[in-house]
Write a structure and sequence with these properties.
Low-confidence stretches: 14-27
Radius of gyration: 19 Å
Mean pLDDT: 76
Distance between the termini: 56 Å
Strand order of the largest sheet: 1-2-3-4-5-6-7-8
């Protein structure tokens, strides 16, 4: 055994502290409950329309968001879904999203820009394309 054990523990503790510092501003802005409304939604389950036909208007879904301890709770129609969240980080050649968090729960993904309170929600299932859905909208504080 070498004396590197305590150094590794110190490094892990420092990395954890830095992670908490990067998440803190985003988490603080999302602590207040939000009400969100879909502006647009698309899914693969909807059959394609004949040429010239207009899609039927659909009522926009409204739901609430509550964040606590790195978890995001989406409350809609009496049902609660829980997502694990972290700050969104771009690829090397993409522009940096500012103050955006990404959350995941299985095949469900939720991204929210904490400056503009715009969101994108996606359900991705490679086994069944009829279960692929994407929605976008905006939130406001309660």
């Amino acid at each position: 055994m070498t004396n590197g054990g305590p150094m590794i523990a110190d490094r892990v503790a420092l990395a954890g502290a830095l992670l908490l510092l990067t998440i803190a501003p985003s988490a603080a802005q999302l602590r207040r409950p939000l009400t969100c409304t879909e502006d647009a939604a698309i899914d693969f389950a909807t059959p394609s329309l004949p040429e010239g036909a207009k899609p039927q208007p659909r009522k926009a879904r409204t739901f609430s968001l509550v964040s606590s301890g790195g978890l995001l709770t989406v409350i809609s129609a009496g049902r609660s879904d829980y997502y694990e969240c972290q700050p969104a980080s771009p690829r090397l050649n993409e522009r940096v999203p500012r103050n955006t968090i990404k959350c995941q729960n299985g095949v469900y993904f939720f991204l929210i820009d904490l400056n503009t309170l715009n969101f994108v929600e996606a359900q991705l299932n490679p086994e069944d394309r009829t279960e692929v859905k994407v929605t976008a909208g905006r939130c406001r504080g309660l």
